[in-house]
């Protein structure tokens, strides 16, 4: 079993095996340790950052063969640890501390109608939720909301499909190509080709896309799974861009400037951690596109849960208030390396560790599955199976078990 | 303007123009008046029935040229009345009376995970909601739940698409035909052909469907828009059935026996009136079909709002308790004309009035739109534009304005 050591020894983890993410987060840890106690910026970022930094510290130290002080919880050895999904349960403890301030109370007779505001372009968008979206973006400074239409969706997943529907040229005989630079979010190909639509089709890695004519390019920034900031890579003249900005929040990456694109997607799952709400939103410049996206959501699910929108509004409001009270919000003339929101330089601290297995192991996902650790392999993201994505959004308890188990994989 | 009178005079309304629905509801009114006060069955049905009966009484009397006692609210004459959608706001006043019993309270840290129960086939189904679905069906007796998988959806609209995805034969070169007997629910063709899928295609009226090979037939019973009880009509050997039972509740139709089909769809929108929750459920016999439906919903929206499921569970629980307290629940040996749940004979009382314009008016929807009354025309349901569907689920105030306005359409 010597080869296992060669995969998971600290040296490999930090020097060979890890993509940039983990080491960058370690740097954040150092930054965090060395700062004067005055940091209390985006409270949420702080919380997240601490948790991630702690996780990474444990990860890098505990997988060393010399770390013998770890105790294994009884009966925990055989439990499967699922770090495949980016399930943001690590945020639970934060919201627990907020207590009643974010509790929502809904009487039985409320929100019965299909309609939220029949006079609005997006007629199923709750006005209070729309208001809180605009106010939060304005405070955080991560997206331009002026002259944008807001379309609410059942998560940003539905909005992505609504965007494909809205942007596909109806008259074309051939489906429009949908591309994204690898490694790309593993669900994009599945979603795009799920119903074998004649409107659009998945066409793979944007970097190798050479066809003429119109295409749709997905730009995920910071990227899932590898955490890099991104721009569009195809150089075609007829490209239509969708910007998936799920992770463009200060707990994941420096906010260098307000994003100002034609079609931007955000989601509550990654901004506040409330994945179970199934709420996302799109900021859309073109009225006709916003109208078609609304039409898709009308046909697909006749709107979006009002209960969830109302609760999301309350959570976003609380987030914004805390952000404002921090007193650290800064205006806009800082160089790009600086997070304009936190007013300090820091490196990306992504939600996922993007790890490469060196040596003989060709399929890292299968290898880890043999150890009852579920991750998502590189092939789902359009790259080699030597890579895996490990979610760092899980509850601390699960993460601790994962780290303990890694530490026992040795000859 | 004499022709208008010929369309809307009472005689036409009741003898020529109306489909069976309205007259049947009038019979219910008589039945209701003549009963001995002891009736307090399905409280919900009672409420609904009263409201419908009242609406129909007003409709039939007020459009008579002799009804001059109506007063028109000032400034209300020009307001557009939208009776196009079946928006169940008439149920609001019922739930208002229930007060705090159906209020739901959700702390900010709850329901953050994507998962409800990872060990379950439908991993995003909240266990409490599943429990309440089974208990309500068992009390009302409108569907068999034994040996069924429950799949929750963002309304039954999403479940319909999940069913198409699950039932379409993957290997086929040609899309499978999807049919339903006209008049059919106007959204079926739109949903089916929205993304121009290569898996399935809308093939129109089931009664004229003659192709060989596999097909999917939608059976909506009671039917939207005309309220009739239905069975499948295509006689092919390779038919796969989807039963949309949104209106198979005692407030709409007698419950003759528990529905016992392979794939049955229900929705909170029509059972409790909470359309804004976007919650529906499917009862599915085949495990593989249930699994594929779950997969579709995972790809489409990564599950279903937990906030809505939790609230729906509370509302369904309240509904069931009230039903049980009524003490009128009866067991199963009654002839089909009897509602097994209410233990008395009654005729269907649908959620929509299905009206036909006689005489020269070829496009009844356009004609009524000219009077600022929005309805949904027959062509959307696969039949002649002489028909329109009028929602009777609106708030009483809007319905009153509608009735008043009809009464003024005269020469």
What would you note in describing this structure?
The structure is a homodimer of 411-residue chains. Chain A is of the alpha/beta class and 411 residues long. Chain A has two domains: 1-76 and 392-411, no CATH class; 110-325, 3-Layer(aba) Sandwich (Aspartate Aminotransferase, domain 2). Chain A contains 13 helices and 15 strands. In chain A, the strands form four sheets. A seven-stranded mixed β-sheet of chain A has the order 3-9-8-7-6-4-5. In chain A, strands 12-15-14 form a three-stranded antiparallel β-sheet. A two-stranded parallel ribbon of chain A has the order 1-13. In chain A, helix 7 packs across helix 10 (287-301). The radius of gyration of chain A is 22 Å and the shape is globular. The termini of chain A are close together. At the A-B interface, helix 5, strand 2, helix 7, helix 8 and helix 10 of A face helix 5, strand 2, helix 7, helix 8 and helix 10 of B. Strand 2 (104-106) of chain A pairs antiparallel with strand 2 (104-106) of chain B.
Structural class call of chain A reads alpha/beta
The largest chain-to-chain contact, stated as pair and per-chain residue counts, equals: A-B, 68 and 68 residues
Question: Spans of chain A with pLDDT under 50 lasting ≥5 residues?
Answer: 1-74, 327-336
Oligomer: homodimer
- Overall radius of gyration of chain A: 22 Å
**Helicity range of chain A:** 25-40%
For the sheet with most strands of chain A, the description reads: 7 strands, mixed
Protein name (chains A, B): Tryptophan aminotransferase-related protein 2 isoform X1
GO molecular function, one term (chains A, B): transaminase activity
Organism (chains A, B): Gossypium australe
Transmembrane segments (chains A, B): 12-30
